[in-house]
Amino acid sequence: MAYYKDSINKIFNEFGSSINGLSKEEAAKRIIQYGYNELQEKKKVPAWLLFLNQFKDIMIIILFVAAVLSGIVGDLTDTIIILIIIILNALIGFVQEYRAEQSMEALKKMSTTQTQVLRNNESSIISSTELVPGDIVLMEAGNVVPADIRLIDTHTLRIDESSLTGESMSVDKISTDLTEDNITLGDQVNMAFKGTLITNGRATGIVISTGMQTELGKIANMLHVDEVSTPLQYRMQKFGKNLSYIILFICLLLFTTGVLRGEEPLSILLLSVSLAVAAIPEALPALITIALSKGASHLTKVNALIRKLPAVETLGSVTYICSDKTGTLTQNKMKVIELYEQPIAGLSSSLSVLQMSMALNHDVKFTESHTPFGEPTELALVEYIIHKHTFEKYILLSNQYSRVAELPFDSDRKCMTTIHHFNNKFLVITKGASESLYATLTDEDEKSLLLNQSEEWASKGIRVLAFAYSILDKLPEPFTYETVEKNLTFAGLAGLMDPPREEAKQAIRECKTAGIRPVMITGDHPATARAIGKQIGILDDNSLSLTGAELNHLSQEDFLKQVEKTSVYARVSPEQKLRIVKALQEKGHYVAMTGDGVNDAPSLKSANIGVAMGITGTDVSKEASDVILLDDNFATIVKAVKEGRRIFDNIRKFVKYIMTCNGAEIWTIFMAPLLGMPMPLLPIHILWINLVTDGLPALTLADEKAESDIMQRPPRHPSQSIFADGLGYHIVWVGILMAGVTLATQKYALVNHIDSWQTMVFTVLSLSQLVHVLSIRSDRTYLFQQGFFSNKPLVGSVALTVLLQLFVIYVPFMNTIFKTQPLSLTELGICIGMSLVIFHAVEFEKFVRKQFHKK
């Protein structure tokens, strides 16, 4: 339909709507009729197919075939148990993948945009997915257009349609009807299209199409792309693939040597394939997704909404945090912190002339519950008076000296004047910038006082408001600025500041100890920026401050020389923010940048982590960001960085755990025949270890709390291998030690003719893996310093696994199934003692690391 040609009234009639909007009941009906306003995503894999996909791995298929053949020619019990374990393994894999998908869905739902609509002639904010054709939508600069909309009313509206039409320049929009036929989208200037960005002005419009019926929806199939893996997931997938080849080669070698030694071919095939299935870390990508998604959910609880999953893993790499001042480092609430009152007789018995002027000269209004609202500076003045003299006295004063006329503030005069009844005369109060009031005074001493005090405060970053007054017998004619704002008497000065957030100071200290450089970027006055920077600890003797003008005069070469030393930027434009980001990146830094306006989008996109403001931020800035601060608080960024480090640490821990355990299984199976001993484990034992000991504890490592020194160490470089900092060595030496302990147990049992030697080997390897997971909960802190129960899910999973292992050893029907024998207390004690070797070895490793770091 060519709605750009139709009149607004015709469109109203067609959609059964009006300028007052739809009723809520009608909107609910239309949701059912038209569906939600969202683009259809690539068809998701149904749960049942996701489960079946767990069986398509070639190694699972080989194991399945080998188990069936073994059952045909040998023991059917083994076959049934192996098949049950395969199904349980598949079930765990399915749960991990399903949870990862659900977590991602939850993140998408949390990051949907909001839209202002008229329903029942009342304005309300709703999720943009709930829009229906016929809705009346109110939009302004910074919003993303939520649906295809015919514009009803526009005010200097400009829209960036580059995402839809490719036109790089923003388009001026109007609301009048167009007459031409077959106009291209770019020329439909009375239409706004879903997904485009409002860069200027405001507008009202009627929704004509939603979801897949929009112009964006019509090309939605072009937008269907596969989910992109995070860098870490990609690296681990690549590593897992390469590792699989090595493991398959080892298993092939195991099978070949077994056959050459005279082992029964089907049995050795079953063992080799079981080992391959257990050792290949196919669950790692899913475990990483779960860890990242859980981290993202946890970050939401501390007011950081993650829009893009890779941001979770990369938050820990941030070296510079470039933050806005207002509202992020400060409270975004002006407060009177200084008063300079002229020593003159008060016009009121209870208030000085200055305080009376502050109480009367403003446009602040009150709600029914006496909550003031209005312009921030005036709010600060009124709140000061109410706090000092009570609300009742303020109301009494306002009624006693009621306003009779005013001269509103304008940017040329930079002042505002109000006139009030005063004892059958008129009280004139003028408030404004010091330089503006200077010209209205007649007394030279007062002029000097005004300038000197103003300059002193301004040098400290304090915003100065000057007040002057006069008493007139009658109002002058003509009633103009020139006739009223003259021959005034200086009343005094009010000094205001947007105070720093208390939590920002602590967050700045945390940043510095964590090797992160905080930088303040503001459009505010340089003196104010420097004052706030010093108060919160960003600016010190070793750092510099720059203004936008100074930055303009610096060549790129000169700027690169001092960008790492500069901590405060004042009077900076959005374009210069982008230059700062790129300069820091050129110096090899990983930059987080905050922003809230339309013009901040380029710097947010260019930064390694773009951080948008959830309260004051525009839709455009949020769309460009990786993280949204729901409370607009700098301290939340630091919490997010800390959480990012914790999540990456925990991912390293379960990589360490799984790879060490898998390595131990390979070494044990491979080395036993070379040492002249029989095969230490049966296929069912290996699959059980993989199912129980590798599965449950690995998942709960994601819940591990942050290391005590997590914010005392430098940021991790994003390209650093996950196996760096000794992790790779740990996997090798602990895996070999675990296998050595297991094989030593086997040798001891065989030498001493213990019939249950295989059960002992099975138990030692299982328990070794469980004590290993307890000891790697921290890289630096000993377990009993850390607190044994500080990760209750992990302790619970270990306890459950131990019980299951004992169940397999001591319950008679499980003995039959798993080919185990009950162990005597002495034999069980030997198994526990041998397993504890691993625990003490890893704890000793922490001691060695501490000694090394001391040096």
The tally of beta strands, per DSSP, is 23
Largest sheet: 8 strands, mixed
List low-pLDDT spans. 222-228
Shape: elongated
How many distinct helices?
33
Q: End-to-end span in angstroms?
A: 76 Å
Quote the beta fraction.
15-25%
What report would you give on this structure?
The protein is an alpha+beta fold. The chain starts with 7 loop residues before the first helix and ends with a helix. It has 33 helices and 23 strands. The protein is elongated and about 120 Å long.
List the helices and strands and how they pair.
Layout: H1 8-15, H2 24-34, H3 47-52, H4 58-73, H5 76-110, E1 114-119, E2 122-127, E3 136-140, E4 148-160, H6 162-165, E5 171-172, E6 191-192, E7 197-209, H7 215-218, H8 231-260, H9 265-279, H10 284-301, E8 304-306, H11 310-314, E9 320-324, E10 335-341, H12 353-360, E11 365-366, E12 372-373, H13 376-389, H14 391-400, E13 403-410, E14 415-422, E15 425-432, H15 434-438, H16 444-459, E16 463-472, H17 481-484, E17 489-497, H18 502-513, E18 517-521, H19 526-536, E19 544-547, H20 548-553, H21 556-562, E20 566-570, H22 574-586, E21 591-595, H23 601-606, E22 609-613, H24 619-624, E23 627-629, H25 634-674, H26 683-693, H27 696-700, H28 727-751, H29 757-775, H30 783-786, H31 792-810, H32 812-818, H33 825-854
Helix pairs in contact: 4-5, 4-9, 5-10, 5-26, 8-9, 8-10, 8-25, 9-26, 10-25, 13-14, 18-25, 25-28, 25-29, 26-29, 28-29, 28-33, 29-31, 29-33, 31-32
